[in-house]
Amino acid sequence: MTIAQITDLHVTTEKDPLNQRRNEARLRQVLNTIHGLRPRPVAIIASGDLVDRGEPEEYDELKRVMADCEIPVFYALGNHDDRKTFLQVFDGPDARVDENGFVQYAVDFGPVRVVVCDTLEGPNDGDYDPLRADWLARTLDAEPDKPTAVILHHPPIPSGIRWMDPDPESEWIKRLHDVLHGRRQVKMLMCGHIHRAFSGVFAGHSLCAAPATSIQLTLDLTEVDMHRPDGREILVEEPPGFALLMAHEGHLTTHTCLAGAFKPAVTYNFPFRTKA
Ligand SMILES: [Fe+2]
Fold it and tell me: Residue 276: its pLDDT value, please?
């Protein structure tokens, strides 16, 4: 059983023609690759920055692109999203909210539970206030023995790409840590936001950030003066990608995948194992 994670779609409109064409083409490339996977994933989690400026027309565009998707899609929000506008356009079954109106919910997929969190605050930093943290604690405690993946747009640990990283002393990060720490059913934290795959550990749990379907962040781990632009490259047209969560023999693992059609290098024409 697998679940695909796509993130940082940054879908936009003809008002921004370069990004509209590029981000839609790259998103379609990712969706094509996911639809070709065997076994086919049972769901796609879109983990935020669904659109670029949080405008209703952008969410209409997102609906149009995702209408071809044959796999159920579950949405989370990122700092480029607008909660109210998203909920106006994606009403009905896509509008999954907690009792306080945050886009937070839990979904069971056979042996695995996925808990989608709403870390939207903006303009770039995440947030997780006491109301949201209380919901997460109660939601996790409802299924203490079921292997669970938690979806967070904002990684609560630094990637090393300085201009995107959070302040590790932020109150929201401490709050999130306190909820996740010791809740042993949590097997994987799956994030976006950094537009580049990286992994680490937070509150004792494995954390994986997926590459964007749109453009990637340049891998530049040097110091940066946040107040003095120096002309460095910060975003790059590396191939679009996604992550794949796999439940297998009691384990949850993630694969970081590139989208596209690649030429086979070797085919299975000899036994993998020979008899002793
Ligand atoms: Fe993004």
Answer: 66
- Could you read off the pLDDT of 163-213 as tens digits, one per residue? 999 999 999 999 999 999 999 999 999 999 999 999 999 999 999 999 999
CA 146, CA 252: separation in Å to the nearest integer? Answer: 11
Distance from Cα 148 to the centre of ligand 1, integer Å: 24
pLDDT digits (tens, 9 = 90+) for 235-268: 999 999 999 999 988 889 999 999 999 999 999 9
State the distance from the centre of ligand 1 to the C-alpha of 96, rounded, in angstroms. Answer: 21
- Residue 49 Cα to ligand 1 midpoint, Å, equals 5
d(CA 197, CA 207): 11
Average pLDDT over residues 82-87: 96
Q: Which amino acid is at 271?
A: P
- Ligand 1 midpoint to CA 176 (Å): 21
CA dihedral over 135, 137, 138, 139, signed as positive or negative: positive
In terms of phi and psi (left: phi > 0; alpha: psi -120 to 50; beta: otherwise), the region of 261 is: beta
Q: Compute the distance from residue 204 Cα to the ligand 1 centre, in Å.
A: 26
- For the chain, list the domains and their CATH numbers: 2-258 (3.60.21.10)
Ligand 1 centroid to residue 232 C-alpha, Å: 19
Within 8 A by CB and 6+ apart from 184, the residues are 144
Ligand 1: centre distance to CA 141 (Å): 30
Let me know: does 165 contact 193? Beta carbons within 8 Å: no
To which residue do tokens 């990608």 refer? 241
**Centroid of ligand 1 to alpha carbon of 268 (angstroms):** 39
What is the rounded CA–CA span in Å between residue 118 and residue 248?
28
